[in-house]
Amino acid sequence: MTKTGTFGAALVLFAAFSATAEAKLYKWVDDKGVTHYGETVPPEYANKDRVQFNDKGSVVKKKASPEDAASGKKTPEEQAAIEQRRKDSALLNTYSNEKEIDLALERNMQQVDARINSIHMLQKSAQESRSSYQKEAAQMKAAGRKIPASLQTDIAEAEKKITQLQQDLTQAESKAAAVKATFAADKARYRELTTATKK
Q1: Which pTM does this prediction carry?
Q2: Mean pLDDT of the residues in the chain
Q3: Predicted pLDDT at 187
Q4: Nearest-angstrom CA–CA distance, 68 and 66
């Protein structure tokens, strides 16, 4: 039976069991990966992952297989909680007060700001070069002279460089915003943790 067909059958079972307050319905997956629903779980799948539903069709219990329990496999929620505790510990061990967080932000922003300022200077230089090439081309055209291929190439290269620099600037500005957001979140979390500790 396909998973879709099995699920359709499950809906029928939900309706059948809904009349009994104590009705139980289980879902399990066999060795071939096919999902099944039933009032009881076959003995050969008793130690496998399974889900129990109530008479409304809502999940009331999940059971992990002994293999998962023995291996220490964590649920996504447990993993998220462990990761949050790790981050909190690192935050408290890295900073002694909020001012240190501000100073760390300032140090990180110095590098990002230097990159942004460098791009601005390169942009100005590229724009000046393009203007010079375009002016030279315009003078040649006004004099009825043919614009040499080398000058056309210079103009195209200048345009290309300006476009690339604009992309670089956008990335640098995005990084600056990300750095500020990260430190703002760290500072808010640090305040939350230290305030809770003082209470």
Answers
A1: 0.56
A2: 82
A3: 94
A4: 5
pLDDT tens per residue, range 41-80: 787 777 777 777 666 556 656 665 555 555 566 788 888 8
CA angle 187, 190, 196 (to 5 degrees): 140
The helices-and-strands tally (H runs, E runs) of the chain is 5, 4
**Residue of 167, 87, 86 whose CA lies nearest to 123:** 167
Encoded amino acid at 20, one letter: T
Backbone angles phi, psi at 64, to 5 degrees: -85, 150
CA–CA separation, 9 and 24 (whole Å):
15
Contacting residues for 98 by C-beta, under 8 A, at least 6 apart = 187, 190, 191
Angstrom distance (rounded) from CA 76 to CA 60: 18
pLDDT for residue 1: 47
Encoded tokens for 10 = 């499950």
Taking the alpha carbons at both ends of the chain, their separation in whole angstroms is 59
